[in-house]
Amino acid sequence: MKPLIQVNNLSKEYKLPGHIFNRKTFAALFPLSFEIQAYKTLAIVGESGSGKSTLAKLLVGAESPTTGNIKLNGQELQTGNFKQRCQYIRMIYQDSGTTLNPSLTIQKLLDEPLKLNTTLAEAERQVLISETLRQVGLLSDHMNFYPHMLSGGQKQRISLARAIILKPQVIILDEALASLDPSLRSQMINLLLDIQQQMGLAFILISHNIGIVKHFSDDIMVLDNGKVIEAGKTAEVLAKPSQKYTKKLIMNQHFQLFSR
Amino acid sequence: MNILDIRNLSIILVSGHKRILAVDRVSLSMKEGELRGLVGESGSGKSLLAQAIMGVLDDKWEVDADRFHWRGNDLMRLSVAERKKIISKDIAMIFQEPMSCLDPTTTIGAQLEEAVDDEQLTGYFWQKIKQRKQAAIKLLHKVGIKKHDLCLRSYPHQLTEALCQRVMIAMALARRPLLLIADEPTAAMESTNQSQIFRLLASLNQLKNMSLLLISHDLENMTHWTNRITVMYSGQFVEAGTTKQIFSTPFHPYTRALVDSSPHANSTFEPKSQLTALPGSIPILQHLPIGCRLGPRCPRAQQACVNAPKVKNHHGHLVSCHFSLKETY
Amino acid sequence: MARENIYQEEEFPSPLLQLWYHFKEKPYIMLAFGCFLALVILAIFAPIITPFYSSQNHLEHLLLPPAWSDNGNVSFLLGTDKLGRDMLSRLMHGASFTFGLSFIIVIVSAFIGVLIGSLSALTSGLKSSILNHFLDVILSIPSLLLAIVIVAILGTGLSNTVLAIIIVLIPQFIHTTRNEVKKEFSKDYVLVSKLDGASPLRILRYSIFPNIVEKIIGQATLAQSAAILDIAALGFLGLGAPIPLPEWGAMLSNGIDLFYVAPWTVYFPGLAILFSVIVTNLVGEGLRHALKVRKAN
Prior knowledge:
The complex is a heterotrimer of chains A (260), B (329) and C (297).
Chain A: E1 5-15, E2 25-36, E3 41-45, H1 52-60, E4 67-72, E5 75-76, H2 82-86, E6 89-92, H3 96-99, H4 106-117, H5 122-135, H6 152-164, E7 170-174, H7 182-199, E8 202-207, H8 210-216, E9 219-224, E10 227-233, H9 234-239, H10 244-258
Parallel strand pairs in A: 3-8, 3-9, 6-7, 7-8
Antiparallel strand pairs in A: 1-2, 1-4, 4-5, 9-10
Chain B: E1 2-15, E2 18-31, E3 35-39, H1 46-54, E4 61-64, E5 67-70, E6 73-74, H2 80-90, E7 91-94, H3 98-101, H4 108-115, H5 125-142, H6 148-153, H7 161-173, E8 179-183, H8 191-208, E9 211-216, H9 219-222, E10 228-233, E11 236-242, H10 243-248, H11 253-260, H12 263-266, E12 312-314, E13 317-319
Parallel strand pairs in B: 3-9, 3-10, 7-8, 8-9
Antiparallel strand pairs in B: 1-2, 1-4, 1-5, 5-6, 10-11, 11-13, 12-13
Helix pairs in contact in B: 4-7, 5-7
Chain C: H1 15-24, H2 27-49, H3 87-122, H4 126-133, H5 136-140, H6 143-154, H7 158-185, H8 188-195, H9 200-236, H10 248-256, H11 264-296
């Protein structure tokens, strides 16, 4: 099946402040390539500082890569051109408390991407907003609420609604499930799986929780200090990790499971 | 002997004319040297309970209990000042996000020295200064920080979260407490650091026979370290028992749902299939259900759940439910 | 479809309404707010509702004491001054000069200040620094002195006074706006808007301004009390409003020569200035307090 997203040789180096003629560079991400197909999920795992968030920022367009490019359906994505990118690649952030503007109602929050990127009329936008709210399991009455009136789980659903309202093709989950309570996490995972089936999305899950990764993803990529040290199908990598780092990650999480 | 014996503790939020029962008759009893887990999601009142034990709630909360015994002393009968004296000597607490609990404008060394107990120092005041420094270094060694020089001289923002949490534990140990309450100590950390902190706490519990009350929202994480677990939901007591009982044969539907949402249970599912989850969400303080607060979400709820259930004891496994799952095992 | 909100009496107010509820809590702040509104209405309608014309001379009633003293006349409630003009009418008309002009001054300088401050926050580096600091030289000179200098250059008169005070008040707004906008820019929801393809202007208007408007208003009340004092001071020095105009500072300077004979011609304008400054400060205080309480909740 044709890949939805193709990443070739993507890398990112930051210039450290220093002498003008001898600027040191800090390699946040070494060149890497991968592809994802529709209906599939790629999990990116690693400790903090391993380059996961840099990769997320590069994919969503917040930073421009030093080398390499990202192709969506064969078409290359230009950096800085947010309008082109944000329709196809959307992101859900970790902390929904700070990514929702506290003085806008939910309706205005969801209206904004529509106003910026589509040419729908006012009435059509309203209909689309209510439909999307219903799809994520909230009521259309929630349109008139402010973010501070909603609980954490509901705020994450609003972030999900904001992501799917433009009918994208790829959604990046940047530790989106880490701050939720366990029971809400299961609900959110069920919702995400449903939506993936309905809309044919590809997910990129960035997480350090091996349990979620094991259940949710098809492929996995392990990062350590900006380098990909292991990649492959989730089931194979987690069953037989070849690198010491991966083994350590798995051991730390499964420690409790085995010794009971 | 029960070191801490709390029976039917209620915490009421007084706001304007409304009185909201944030914590509804929760009982907790701990033995000496026990590592107890207190599990509850956000809004379950577990942090409120810990703060009520320490006595640090402010005026808008009213605390009421049938029994509140500490090492046999009835704390309800003492005056506030005496209660504070006993509690501050014997109970210590550590919190989430340790970096924000440390003073950002003074060095770790200064803060540790401030925490050292005056009564354990002897001699003239210049000797006391030296002893204070020595005591601070010894505390750091106790929590496993070998390079104490660098640590004592740095400021909190220069250390990692895990190190800051160790420093917090060191400060908590300064007065040699008999009970350490850990309120979600590892919520902000990654898994490697989490297991380090838990290992440290467990070793302190075993070596110094210090009881430990570990509060968390992650049931699965705690099952390795704790002897007994108490589960709370939305301010009500749900279930309590040994770790094995809770994890392998949960009696209450809520505990069962928590166990089902842990990665261990998830691993038995087909990848990318639907997980079992309780519908609905946690009730907010303004709209608490009557009777058993799990009622609206519980799959086994019936008419009788409008009344709050009583606590039943099955061989040390306490559960508060009208229709517990005991018969299914 | 079933209604979500089954608790009909439960309200979920918008952030603005919440601010209003917190503002309403303290009775003395509400009293000050009422007086503030009364002063604004007075400033707008004063020429219509005064009992006498403020420049009308009643030569037969020179230096009449206020109505409650023995020699007073009830039709001249607060007495008359040395040219026979009714004090009450002059005070009311003066509200539209001292208070009303200060209001306009604050609005104009806030507008210019916010504009420059936002431009400064949108750019970065040298351009931003220049925009931020080029009016700082104004901050280094005491506002009254600067107003005197400007009036000395341009000549006396009310319009030049107004111009001088506007220039003096702009830098504070620039700094406040720039700091607040920069702070807001670093917040996550603004980043999200940017990634959605919003232009910086759009982000400024929809995502940032609703969150900083209240702080700017707080700054504006501070500026207004300074403006009232400056207008009155310049009027007192004779550099502001020309003599016949009933501006409170000018009235003060008129009455000072005859202070021992007719103290009411000095007390009443002074009290009026005091009253309007206190009222403005209390309103600003209430707003800041309400903002703090709303943030804490």
